Automatic annotation (TrEMBL):
The organism's taxonomic lineage, starting at the top: Eukaryota, Metazoa, Chordata, Craniata, Vertebrata
Gene: Il22ra2
Role according to the record: Receptor for IL22. Binds to IL22, prevents interaction with the functional IL-22R complex and blocks the activity of IL22 (in vitro). May play an important role as an IL22 antagonist in the regulation of inflammatory responses.
Domain spans labelled Interferon/interleukin receptor: 108-212
Organism: Erythrocercus mccallii
Keywords noted in UniProt: Disulfide bond, Receptor, Repeat, Secreted, Signal
Protein name (Swiss-Prot/TrEMBL): Interleukin-22 receptor subunit alpha-2
Highest taxon in the source lineage: Eukaryota
InterPro entries linked to this entry: FN3_dom (IPR003961), FN3_sf (IPR036116), Ig-like_fold (IPR013783), Interferon/interleukin_rcp_dom (IPR015373), Type-II_Cytokine-TF_Rcpt (IPR050650)
Any one GO molecular-function label of the UniProt entry: cytokine receptor activity
PANTHER family documented for this protein: INTERFERON/INTERLEUKIN RECEPTOR, INTERLEUKIN-22 RECEPTOR SUBUNIT ALPHA-2
Domain Fibronectin type-III per the UniProt entry, residue ranges: 6-96
Location of this chain's protein in the cell: Secreted
Keyword Signal: yes
GO CC term (a single one): extracellular region
Length: 214
């Protein structure tokens, strides 16, 4: 019995955590500390906070991976969720490892916007597209993150003549197309943008830089 108890403890999953980007939500965990834990299989359950019964996640039932996609199961974004994972090896099951409480609306990370740059000789037109959630409208298009939060675009310009790292904020607002005027011909400029949420004072990461030579 003692050996079984040791095995149960040594294969128990560690660090069970939700990771979420634009409501694409996955559960991650690390294997137990035993060397044999590499060969363990994992079983994932989830529930809304306050519910008494756990639901099995069928696609993550007896898997060898350390990641489980719970995007669909956490689609009520204001609700708090829990998940838990147990491991099995050689007919022995570990106890359950519980995640922290996870509320998608509060905790998902908002990604940067997509940026497209079109230039003329003295100006740059910047087209912005908000990141999209995995959830779809009836017509099938994915719902942008701007539907769920009051988000602003922040657009920065980098003048490569002056300093690669010096970003100047040239626009903050909700317009998806902006024009930056009175630039110098023959100079290379780069544009980066991010999403900004005033209410929670959160910013996304910067978009990848789009550069153009006027």
């Amino acid at each position: 019995v003692l050996e079984n108890q040791d095995l149960q403890d040594s294969i128990k999953p560690q660090k069970v955590e939700f990771h979420s980007l634009n409501f694409n939500t996955t559960l991650h965990w690390q294997p137990g500390w035993a060397r044999e834990a590499r060969d363990a299989l994992y079983f994932v359950q989830y529930k809304v906070y306050g519910q008494s019964t756990w639901q099995n996640k069928d696609e993550c039932w007896g898997i060898s991976s350390h990641v489980c996609d719970l995007t669909h199961e956490t689609s009520d974004i204001q609700e708090p969720y829990y998940s838990r994972v147990r491991a099995a090896l050689a007919g022995v099951y570990s106890s359950w490892s519980l995640s922290c409480r996870f509320t998608p609306w509060r905790e998902t990370v908002i990604g940067p916007p997509m940026v497209t740059v079109v230039h003329s000789n003295k100006s740059i037109t910047v087209k912005l597209q908000a990141p999209r959630s995995p959830y779809k409208r009836k017509r099938g298009s994915k719902i942008p993150m701007t539907n769920y939060y009051d988000l602003l675009y922040q657009v920065f310009i980098i003048n490569n003549l002056l300093d690669e790292q010096h970003r100047v904020l040239v626009y903050e607002g909700k317009d998806k197309v902006i024009k930056i005027q009175d630039l110098r011909p023959g100079v290379s400029y780069c544009i980066v943008a991010k999403m900004y949420m005033p209410m929670l004072d959160h910013s996304s990461a910067y978009s990848s830089r789009q550069c153009t030579l006027l």
